[in-house]
Amino acid sequence: MALLLLLCVSPPGTWADDQVSEAFHSDPIEGRWIAPEGTNLIKIPHLAFSQGNNWSSSFDSIPVYVENQTIRGAFRGASEGAGSWVEVGITQFDISEFLSVFQATDRRVKMEGDVSRQILNSTADASFTLDGLPAGMYTASVFDENSSAVLSATPLLVTMADLTLQMPSNITAGDYAKLKVNMSLAEGRGAYQSNNLSRVFAAIMISCRDYENTSLNISGNGTEGSLNSTLSLKDKSMQMQGLPAISSDLLMKVLYLLPMNSAIGMQESNESKTEILLITDREWEKGSYILTCGVYSPGMGLLGLKQMSVEVI
Amino acid sequence: MKGVPILIIFTLLSICSAFDLSPAHPSPGDKITLTGTASPSEEVSLRSSFTMNLPVAAGQYEYETSVEIPQKPNRFKVTARNVQDFNAGVKLGIWITKSFPASSGTASISQSDVPPGRYSLKMFGEAQPGSTVVPVEVVAETKIAADSSGKYTLDIDTSGIPAGDYRIEGAGDSKTIHLGGAGLVSTSTSSNGNGWSGDGDDNNNKASSAKQAAKPVPINRETVSWYAQQTGLTIENSSQYDEAEKLLKKRLSGGYWKIIARGDPLTEEAGDCLQEYCLVRGVDACTICREKDIILNGNQSSKYSDRNELRPSSSPKNQSQQTAEPMEEKGLLSRFTDWISGLLGMH
User: What is the CATH number assigned to the segment(s) A2-159?
Assistant: First the structure.
């Protein structure tokens, strides 16, 4: 929940439009992380989970695949794992399970689709390929085949459509920023293309510097009731008991945490393409900004999510 | 026979529900106090509306103001005509904008139960070709509870509301108030008789004469120097002088902004320009500047008094505008909530 709250509310940033990038999911120093490849990586505010005194996991990006797009990646194992067999599989995302993922031993029974069985090479790395999935939120996990222990896990998002974003690369502070959004539905979603369902196109723009100073820490001792979440943006922070529950009140609080030089724009449309206007102020700090755009359809869920970067001059 | 008692009851209700407004001749920005009598603990509905004509420059229209939204329940509706599109922005710490397509040149927003507080607002977009003005009608509604003796009081903060005549309706009564001053906003009559309604022609004439009185000052070295000072540029530096001139020209392009000189009338109750020059809009510039200062310098969180307070907006406010046809729709934050909940698979 918290992860997705951040995904939408305190926008992510983007870099690579669709391309190969490597995200460090889990601990990049000790190994045991999953690096998604060849997909749209959405940068999220730094997200950290801790249990007791031990950090379980931390993320700064999330891979986004289009429905049925093959899921490729690599597992970077700890050096002592070289030569051992691992399995990579996918489960439906569940925040409670995700938080306890490293304690789980029986997750394979819940796998969606196929499982990739790989042997770790001499550097304890292994590439994997998994079949595409229907739209939804998932967790990709890597297990030790012998012990069934979870070696690493990462959330991933599968959407029904790919988005193309167009905005002038330079925007003058004080001007309106016009974003053109074009949505291409995944294969097999043609019927949806032509129907008349309303779609909400939304975009948020925030400076890279502020974004990089944003974090969400979720800590607990293993039970959901013990969880505490702390959302920090620059010098402001907000603490929540338990997992953040999505509500208008919470969103209002988060909005007021966002730096003044941020903007949100929305547009409702039945079309696949539309324009979103964002208001900037002359006082905005100049520099790089992250623009995140999502398309949501009531009843259908999230259709697409994409990021790009722009310069405010 | 049934009609007679019904008529009597209605008449009595009307008498009992009358309200008064003070002061009788307020200026924009003043607080108007509405007092009335109803049945003990009765909930009284009040409605207002007015129409303002936004000037079109280079095919675009724009209006910015700041309003305070009263306690819930409340409802706002804004309708713009002669438009190709309509964009409404509200500043909730940051700017949140929503765009609305127009149908046959008309776009509407309606929103209920907007969280109380002070908001900066913008409405802007592209006018229909050939249009010189965009009439925007604003309707605001709220409810107020009478006390145990049947008395009720409502403070109406008029900051951000253009000069003109407005009518307040509710509790079987209807009153027209005039916000004085030679406001620069051209306000036209709202012919539907809702709430605050403007007295259009009269105000349009006032607007014209006010604009003529405040003759724009041309761009010259003095005004560029003044503008450079306002924007933190140093005119001794030739590149910064050029930059200031460029920015000023850009600001004045389209005719929506203008510079007036000391002594020229500003807007509303603000009196004359007291500085060497003043950069003003064609639409209640002074109020905007003042309210902006309040926003920038003050605590943005809403402050509520024990009294009820109503701020009919000159633009709707709200964080959740909805589209075109005024069915009651969900708000922007609700949309966000839905969106995120959907993303989380919580639906």
Answer: 2.60.40.1930
